[in-house]
Structure to design on (213 residues):
């Protein structure tokens, strides 16, 4: 679910402007999972544009507090959400931790890096939601460390049905600054794509795992 429509449209436009989101229906990308995709999203680019990263930081900060209440800690999911998560924590005057995909193999073997006390209320910041599996693994790691998860806030989601089901099953509330539907609507309105390309992009979104095979 998006925080609000105005933010969703503005965020989508900014992501397209800096090529953080690339639409290429005619020459699909191949994801690490092997899926063929007419869209590629790299939200790490946001950090290289001060005005845009500040916009994302501010929208996260006000909407997180509005939706979840002010948490005790902000947690970023490594690696994509470490930078923006730390900016949000700084803006809100809160401690910050981040979650590795798996525990370190040496030293203290931490998966959650930073100081976290049992029972603290945590909002998790993520850069991108596809199936939601890796994001929810981070949530589980935080729960095992004793955190009380208030919810997750992400920059963008592809809006896959499987992701919605995964978050529902995990009983985790997910809110995003923007999503696929708002992105495609804006791309059509601003003539980033043709009607034919729009049809391809919507078809892919309905059957992403088998599209193009």
């Amino acid at each position: 679910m998006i925080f609000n429509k105005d933010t969703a449209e503005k965020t989508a436009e900014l992501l397209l402007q800096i090529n953080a989101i690339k639409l290429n229906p005619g020459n699909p990308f191949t994801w690490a999972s092997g899926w063929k995709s007419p869209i590629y999203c790299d939200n790490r680019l946001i950090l290289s544009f001060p005005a845009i990263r500040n916009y994302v930081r501010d929208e996260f900060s006000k909407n997180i507090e509005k939706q979840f209440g002010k948490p005790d800690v902000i947690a970023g999911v490594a690696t994509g959400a470490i930078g923006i998560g730390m900016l949000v924590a700084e803006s809100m005057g809160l401690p910050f931790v981040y979650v590795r995909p798996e525990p370190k193999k040496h030293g203290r073997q931490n998966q959650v890096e930073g100081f976290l006390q049992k029972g603290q209320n945590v909002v998790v910041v993520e850069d991108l939601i596809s199936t939601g599996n890796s994001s929810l693994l981070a949530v589980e790691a935080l729960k095992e460390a004793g955190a009380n998860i208030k919810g997750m806030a992400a920059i963008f989601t592809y809006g896959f049905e499987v992701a919605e089901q995964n978050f529902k099953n995990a009983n985790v509330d997910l809110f995003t600054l923007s999503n696929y539907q708002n992105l495609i609507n804006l791309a059509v309105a601003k003539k980033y794509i043709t009607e034919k390309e729009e049809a391809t992009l919507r078809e892919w979104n309905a059957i992403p795992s088998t599209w193009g095979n």
